[in-house]
Amino acid sequence: MTHFRSLILLLTVSLFSLNGLSQSCDSGLGYCDAGSDLPSKILIKGGTVVNAEHQEVADVYVEDGLIVAVRPNIKVADGVRVIDATGKFVMPGGIDPHTHLAMEFMGTETIDNFFTGQAAALAGGTTMHIDFVIPVDGSLSKGYEAYVEKAKLACMDYGFHMAITKWDDIVPKEMEIMVKEKGINSFKFFMAYKGSLMVSDDLLLEGLKKCKSLGALAMVHAENGDAVFEGQKRMIELGITGPEGHALSRPPVLEGEATARAIRLAAFVNAPLYVVHVMSTDAMEEIARAQKSGQRVIGEPVVSGLILDDSVLWDPDFITAAKFVMSPPIRALGHGKTLQAALSTGVLKLVGTDHCTFNSTQKSFGIDDFRKIPNGVNGLEERMHLVWDAMVESGQMSATDYVRVTSTECAKLFNIYPRKGAILAGSDADIIIFNPNATFHISAKSHHSRSDTNVYEGRSGKGKVEVTIAGGRIVWENEELKVVPGSGKYISMPPFNYLYHGIDKADARYLTSLKAPVNRIRPSL
Ligand code: URP
Ligand code: ZN
Ligand code: ZN
């Protein structure tokens, strides 16, 4: 992996000096940079085209980055690259709603940047992601500029959410600029990470109101940060300093409490809410209850929460345990199954990864104190395979629902559908060809992330992304990546998604229900 990493870095530097159009290839490592000779006209023949609502056997014709036609028996002239997809699924490329590339966090920076993280994503069939901009000293504009710089390495399409970490007169004005001028339509509030990213309830309320006025989507990391702080102290006092202390210090009840609180505050101001990385049955049940009462609440499970259980945190080998440290923590056996069931019934709507990778050296910062282990796990490259295996192969979900939870719902929520999230004429040509009879294997030895570990190490399963087409270019084929740093596009996302439809009517109903102010007869004194 070290050799692989240096190759990527080297390639990155040389590509920039050559304006991204040079030709070089190291097929032994399964990585090439793409030149300008990639076919711009592609015909995908005979596959089963799967959209969120419908699937049918059809051909897909792509030209200059767009899907031009989807129908049976498309005839093309010479010079078109034809791919036979008989017996395979042709689906929209995955969209990961939750990543952290090149994020400065807990005294270090994630090991995957916008190039290596995205290269990994493409190898796993994800063609777009939405990353969280972290403000610099509370400044949204400085944070935005910093992420524009980081994203210059991008080799696939991406968008931004933005975190809100403080509140003053400037922040709401900057939120408005982000929405109206910068194409950001969602803001995240951390209810945990006391002393760094955590916000208070009054800030959350202000934020919810501002999001609503802008038509932006408020997102929460829902854990009670004060109680987590207390739980951490308790563990240290008990002499529990290892990775298991991480899970023990922030139990599901603290996630359930914060989820309920955020939901009730959002109800109070009648604002839509998106709960990121739902890791526990406790949090999921709060979301289900709110949805039943008609509240507009979206729950996002992440792959680690669906697939893993916390037994790994008790592993005697520090690195083996520490690589699983993320927040909210990976839960005890049983939570993952209830989250899978909630995903299959639509209580949870779309799957992210919270890809936030740190290598063994970085994880070792917490060798004597679990509070210093940088929080985060991988998943960008693995998400499409693991969700298929856990949900479709297991019989819990159809292929159409798979497309919905891995791609379409994200595009709809962040208001970029049907440009993204669909195989339709006019949509961006972000496409995967998926062989349901092939097998995937996961290992840090072969993955494309820069991390030296993988939380899904040794897993294999049925279904494999054989070809990834991003922006009309074949970027993954025959186990080989052809990617160009700097070729990824920023996708601007407009406000007022479907959750806002009719919300004004609910506000009007609320005002009527007040039956106030009462026009009182004043006492004549
Ligand atoms: O452990 C995690 N989740 N790291 C990334 C930051 C966050 O809370 O999303
Ligand atoms: Zn979070
Ligand atoms: Zn996150």
Automatic annotation (TrEMBL):
Catalytic activity as recorded in UniProt: 5,6-dihydrouracil + H2O = 3-(carbamoylamino)propanoate + H(+)
Modification N6-carboxylysine occurs at: 188
Entry PTM: Carbamylation allows a single lysine to coordinate two divalent metal cations.
Residues spanning the signal sequence: 1-22
CDD domains from the UniProt entry: D-HYD
Keywords tagged on the record: Hydrolase, Metal-binding, Signal, Zinc
E.C. number(s) listed in UniProt: 3.5.2.2
Enzyme class of the recorded protein, top EC level: hydrolase
Domain Amidohydrolase-related: 89-475
Organism in which the protein naturally occurs: Artemisia annua (Sweet wormwood)
Family of this protein: Belongs to the metallo-dependent hydrolases superfamily. Hydantoinase/dihydropyrimidinase family.
InterPro entries linked to this entry: Amidohydro-rel, Hydantoinase/dihydroPyrase, Metal-dep_hydrolase_composite, Metal_Hydrolase, Metallo-dep_Hydrolases_sf
Protein's name according to its UniProt entry: dihydropyrimidinase
Subunit structure: Homotetramer.
